[in-house]
Amino acid sequence: MSAASVPASAAGTPVPSAMAREAFVARFGGIFEHSPWIAERAWDAGITPAQDTAEGLHAAMCAVLRAAGTERQLGVLCAHPDLAGRLAVAGRLTAESTAEQASAGLDRCTPEEFARLQKLNAAYTECFGFPFIMAVKGRTRAEILAAFETRLRNSREEEFATALAQVERIALLRLKDVLP
User: Fold this and answer.
1) How would you label 33-56 residue by residue, b for 16+ Cβ within 10 Å and e otherwise?
2) What pLDDT, in 10s, does the model give residues 62-94?
């Protein structure tokens, strides 16, 4: 099927079940931060019309993540940037991460908030071995800082599960931006 004949959603995004593998991975490979292998494996498992919605494709992609094993899951967690971290300051976040962090006002931190985030990022990564991950879209800086403080008290197992759930939430929000 040529790109011109691939059905498109009302938003103009080609329908996932009608896409060729290369086009599917190009479009959805960034849904999980720097982890196109999730989109590749989801496509390889078979994308059906049931996955043409944000929720349907999300379920298929999350199934891949959950089946991947702890090491691959840790890789996905580690692919996420620190909130208001050095990559954000250097302007080197993905477009999605830049927009998500800006929506929460993380690009407008006071010097005190920025310093606090840097300390919390360092403490969290030292404690758990991966960056703090939170679906920040629609959240305030105060909510994010409070979540940081609370989650630093979790066990590594609790926090690993929480971080994976947040990664899945981020993916769903990203999919909802492009699919019905």
Assistant:
1) bebebbbbbbbeeebeeebbbbeb
2) 999 999 999 999 999 999 887 766 645 546 557
Q: List, by residue number, the catalytic residues.
A: 80
| Domains with residue ranges and CATH for the chain | 3-74 (1.10.3330.10), 80-166 (1.10.3330.10)
Beta bridge partners, 14, equal 8
**Tokens at 2, concatenated:** 């040529």
CA distances from 48 to 17, 45, 51, 161 (A): 5, 10, 6, 28
What is the rounded distance in angstroms from the CA atom of residue 151 to the CA atom of residue 128? 10
Put simply, whether the predicted model's pTM sits higher than 0.90 gets the answer no
Q: Which residues contact 138 (CB under 8 A, 6 or more apart)?
A: 103, 104
Q: Which residue is it, tokens 């302007």? A: 91
